[in-house]
Amino acid sequence: MRNGGGPVAESQLSELRNMRILLEQARLHARDLAYHRRARLEAAIGRALEEVDGQIEELRADRRG
User: Fold this and answer.
1) 3-state secondary structure string, 6-60?
2) Which tens digit of pLDDT belongs to each residue from 16-43?
3) pTM given for the model
4) Over the chain, what is the mean pLDDT?
5) Which whole-number Å values give the CA distances from 46 to 15, 19, 31, 53, in the listed order?
């Protein structure tokens, strides 16, 4: 996936950051749900955030390497 950190990598990084913001907002909205629904949704959002964070770190590492 090494592409020298060009425009494609910058675009991907921007999209992932935007996705992360949306996931954080979804996490906040989930707090209004009933407990059992909230717990499941927050777990799914947490997994998605971990995946996005991992992809962001990969892109950053590719830009450095």
Assistant:
1) CHHHHHHHHHHHHHHHHHHHHHHHHCCCCHHHHHHHHHHHHHHHHHHHHHHHHHH
2) 999 999 999 998 888 888 888 889 999 9
3) 0.72
4) 88
5) 18, 13, 13, 10
